[in-house]
Amino acid sequence: MIKRSKKILMTAATGLAVLATLGSGTYLTMHAANGVSSVSQTAAPTTATASGTKLTAANPSGTKQNYTVKYHDQAGSNAATFQKKTLGSAATAANQVDYFGRSTTGPSVKLTHGTRAVVQGTMGHTYVHWNTGKWSVTAVTSNADQSGTPTQFADQVNNQLQQQHLPTDATTGAVTVYSQTTGSSAQADTVKWQSGHQLYTVSGQSAAGTVKLAQNSD
């Protein structure tokens, strides 16, 4: 009787060990399935070309809910990043978009394609702002930048936006780009949009390349 009890206990222990192994394996498989290993598993584009510069995606990191895709230019330098975050609510995601409504005040200027924009100046920069559909657009020019006027830069941005739409699944979105891409005053260009609980952010070192990545996204 004692020998039989020991045999039953050993059999039960072996069964539990098998279940533990299967359970662990199932968890690891589920976790692996939730991860992303190629750009095709994300909303990010594989490539984007703008102003003669081609950006190419490297392998993404993260999960389907939260991932990052980095982009290199022809020289192999880091040039842009595409990121998705899943937040606790749609309102939380929307609050991080930095959307500017149509109530922005300032002198009015007419851009290409009949677009009306508002001009504001502060702290050595000129901001040209306009709205298009669910999106707000802000083109920022440093007053020290002698390569063109604020309106000329805003026209370049507006022309690009007219050629190809931004992500259509966006509930709200914001484009903020800078004319100056080098020097101490250079800042990252960004395109952000919210879709449900998801916040997508494209940031880069050139206005045209950053916008193009967003336009090419799924």
Textual characterization of the structure:
This protein has a domain at 79-216. The protein is 29% helix and 33% strand. The chain is built from 4 helices and 12 strands; from the N terminus they run H-E-E-E-E-E-H-E-E-E-E-H-E-E-E-H. The chain has helices spanning 2-34, 90-95, 150-163, 207-216, and strands at 47-50, 53-57, 61-62, 67-72, 78-86, 108-110, 116-122, 125-132, 135-142, 172-178, 189-195, 198-204. It comes from Levilactobacillus zymae.
How are the elements arranged and paired?
Elements: H1 2-34, E1 47-50, E2 53-57, E3 61-62, E4 67-72, E5 78-86, H2 90-95, E6 108-110, E7 116-122, E8 125-132, E9 135-142, H3 150-163, E10 172-178, E11 189-195, E12 198-204, H4 207-216
